[in-house]
Amino acid sequence: MPSHVVAIMVRLKAKPGFEGKVIGAVRALIEPTRQKPNCLYYDFHQMNNDPTVFLSYEVWSSLQDFEEHLNSPFLVAMQEAAVEFLAQPLQYTVMRSVAPTPGSETLPL
């Protein structure tokens, strides 16, 4: 499989009343993830119309880099702890640009 930049959308759904726990867990992930050499962009968002839903937008050098990230000790620990406050398991979608701008594939404007 050729290596190319991929964008990832991760969706977390908190149990009602546990939004604060998700925010705390997500904040603990942001800096360690951004420091990974093959993480090109990483940010988490909370939906305005449903505060129990959180979405991340991530850009990785390759799908393999993202998959390796999923096995990071800090991420595995968060997922194990998250069983308490998530309504469903973490879900993610892998995307790639259909018409990338040279030098900035899938990066946000």
Low-confidence segments: none
CATH architecture type = 2-Layer Sandwich
- Shape by Cα distribution: globular
**Highest-level CATH class:** Alpha Beta
Indicate the CATH topology.
Answer: Alpha-Beta Plaits
Number of helical runs? 3
Alpha-beta content class: alpha+beta
Mean pLDDT: 88
Number of domains: 1
Quick one: biggest sheet? 4 strands, antiparallel
- The counted number of beta strands is 4
Task: Tell me the series of helices and strands, N- to C-terminal.
Answer: EHEEHHE
Would you kindly provide a written description of the structure presented here, covering whatever features stand out?
With about 110 residues, the chain is of the alpha+beta class. It has three helices and four strands; from the N terminus they run E-H-E-E-H-H-E. It has helices at about 20-35, 65-70, 75-80; strands at about 5-15, 40-45, 55-60, 90-95. Strand 2 (about 40-45) and strand 3 (about 55-60) form a beta hairpin. The two termini are about 30 Å apart.
Describe the SSE topology.
Elements: E1 6-13, H1 19-34, E2 39-46, E3 53-60, H2 63-70, H3 73-82, E4 91-95
Antiparallel strand pairs: 1-3, 1-4, 2-3
Considering the chains and any ligands shown, give keywords for the structure.
109 residues; 27% strand; 4 strands; 4-stranded antiparallel sheet; single chain; 31% helix; alpha+beta
